[in-house]
Design the sequence.
């Protein structure tokens, strides 16, 4: 007998959850201006890649906090986006399917058009948390006009699959989904296709701001040096980058 599954793609925008980001002294990080700029980036890059999925039977959650609620409530969100101020608790508790499948994506990154179809086709149903990982990913440095292939072995995305006994228990779900290591699952872990996730490097990256590091834009000489050093991994040619990113729904204006 097949099990019923609810599929969700969820993204943190700004939250009140304790994290290293909120403890840093840099006041611009997660400021109102940063949040507004990041939401624009989400709409122009990340959301387009989500809406472009070949499999569309999933919900889109954006998790926001109280700190900038006045700002995020005024945003004209896409009709499919469900903005949550409780980290999605009310949504999770309203679901009644046998399993809940939650795919995480950062608010500035991209997913290939077949990500959710692959998630659908590789479900692991156990009595505990299971995990799907898209091993290896792309890294696109927008200011440097450079794309790296097979960039990271553990990209910052994963899919958690929970039975109802877990996802209807908020304290347990919170611990297993938000607090524990995302890719470490005892009950089941499956690695999926390579280069299905793209990390995007840009001016609004929270790690750069958090550590007070100015954005370094490569000179043409530096670009060529990197390409010669890693010819099998680095792509500089604009047309080749366009070809690789076509299934990520990237507008040509971003590929200069």
Sequence:
């Amino acid at each position: 007998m097949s099990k019923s599954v609810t599929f969700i793609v969820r993204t943190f925008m700004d939250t009140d959850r304790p994290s290293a980001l909120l403890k840093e002294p840099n006041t611009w990080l997660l400021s109102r201006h940063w949040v507004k700029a990041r939401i624009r980036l989400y709409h122009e890059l990340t959301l387009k890649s989500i809406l472009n999925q070949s499999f569309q039977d999933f919900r889109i959650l954006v998790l926001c906090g109280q700190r900038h609620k006045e700002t995020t409530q005024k945003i004209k969100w896409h009709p499919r986006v469900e903005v949550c101020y409780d980290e999605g608790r009310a949504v999770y508790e309203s679901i009644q399917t046998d399993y809940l499948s939650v795919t995480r994506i950062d608010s500035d990154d991209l997913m290939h058009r077949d990500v959710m179809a692959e998630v659908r086709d590789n479900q692991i149903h156990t009595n505990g948390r299971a995990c799907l990982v898209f091993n290896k990913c792309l890294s696109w440095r927008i200011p440097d006009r450079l794309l790296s292939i097979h960039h990271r072995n553990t990209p910052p995305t994963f899919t958690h699959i929970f039975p109802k006994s877990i996802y209807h228990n908020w304290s347990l779900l919170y611990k297993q989904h938000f607090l524990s290591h995302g890719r470490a699952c005892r009950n089941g872990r499956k690695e999926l296709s390579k280069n299905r996730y793209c990390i995007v490097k840009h001016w609004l990256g929270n790690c750069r701001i958090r550590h007070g590091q100015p954005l370094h834009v490569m000179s043409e000489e530096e670009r060529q040096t990197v390409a010669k050093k890693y010819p099998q991994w680095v792509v500089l040619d604009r047309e080749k980058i366009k070809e690789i990113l076509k299934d990520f729904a990237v507008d040509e204006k971003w590929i200069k």
